[in-house]
Amino acid sequence: MSERGPLAALAELAPRHGQAWLVGGAVRDELLGRPTPDYDIAVEGDAAALARELGRGAGGHAFRLSEEFGAWRVRAHDQRWQIDLTPLTGATLEADLRRRDLTINAIARELTAEGEGALIDPCGGLEDLRERRLRRVSSASFQADPLRVLRLARLAAELGFTADPGTLSLAAAAAPRLDGVAAERVFNELRLILCADGAVAGLELCHRVGATAAVLPELDALAGVQQSEYHHLDVFHHTLATLQEAIDLEREPGAVFGESAIELRAVLDAPLANELTRGQALRFGALLHDIAKPLTLGRSAEGRPTFFAHDVRGAELCGEILSRLRASERLIAHTAALTRHHLRLGFLVHERPLTRRATYRYLSACEPVGVDVTVLSVADRLATRGRNADRAVALHLDLARALLGPALAWHRSRPRPPLAGDELAAALGIVPGPQLGRLLAVLTEAAYVGEVSGRDAVLARAREWLAEQPSAGAPAPDPDPDR
What we know:
A hairpin with a 4-residue loop joins strand 3 and strand 4 (71-75). By secondary structure, the protein is α+β, with helices and mostly antiparallel strands. 54% of the residues lie in helices and 11% in strands. It has 4 domains: 6-129, Beta Polymerase, domain 2, CATH 3.30.460; 132-215, Hydrophobic Seed Protein (Orthogonal Bundle), CATH 1.10.110.30; 226-412, no CATH class; 421-468, no CATH class. A 7-stranded mixed beta sheet has the order 3-4-5-2-1-6-7. A two-stranded parallel ribbon has the order 8-9. Strands 10-11 form a two-stranded antiparallel ribbon.
């Protein structure tokens, strides 16, 4: 079956169970020449029996998707494709197609054993495909399922198509009802919007029709929040500009990072969580990095806008937003860390040349997102084009290039203490506990910066550090001066 393809196999099986048609996005993508591993099939006969037979023939797994609608899914054993089979919901195929959201998703092709069947297009979707237009099937399209508002934005982002005015008006009318849609469905559409090449256009459409206000009110609140003279955009448009810069860096890292680009791309291409690569998760960081600026807005004595601690409050807000959207704990932690540390590199710009100790403390503080947040800081800086921008950008990029090599090395192999904890405790006669943990951190830093080498030197440095500690009962200083 793998040689023939799943649709060819399905076309041979379908006549035994009733008429079947390829419908929706699969037809749209086929006509646009876009590969897809997901197929939607409308079935006039027994969808369950057809799914089971296809599953057996594919060596895969067939299972029920919906008791209410009688939908089944067949997934290939190697996960390379999946087919959803659903009985007609209308009296005829044409009636079924007229219940869909957009005309370009309301085209069908009959599956026949003889070859490609004729296209069925009752709503004018073929013309809209040619005109690269997103048009609703009916006035009830978005009211039937408000999530279709986000799907409209997602298709604008993925295809680069433009929604017609009537469709935008209907989407705007339905957008407030998005707050009643299951969070998992909302998150999935937002994820797909952010993963698209035209993510910024998709988010702009969301904002225009009021979808952002319904599902990400914190993002909507960024609009109109003015910044200092070092910025040329308000916080909302700066956020979108940062996202675009992050997408460009993900796509072509060599433009900024030169010879480190190949290794950087490998890191960004690695899977992270929620079907996202690290590079795609970086887009969430770009979207949310300044999310707390409205909450932290203040004024300097001269009247300049300030946003003190927006990185700290922003990390907390990331957790609240992504938890609300039912994202995974790993994505929540990753995005919160990106937001928490996105300012750190900028604080080091005026400390050049950077010492090895400063490098260690930067990477230690940013663990485990040292590589990712270095890229995010560059995107953030490139999107800041106010006063003295050219000089500030040049200095920032120079420092980011200097830090990326050590960040990649740290990502490959995090620095370890020069002696194991149990060996150190035995040699010094101390018991495991918080003090030993702090000592191991001190020795790891000392080894990284080249202050100690060899067992004797490590133990000597350890004894010096222990002698400097306050006696029992005295208040201990903070072991991390950069906290």
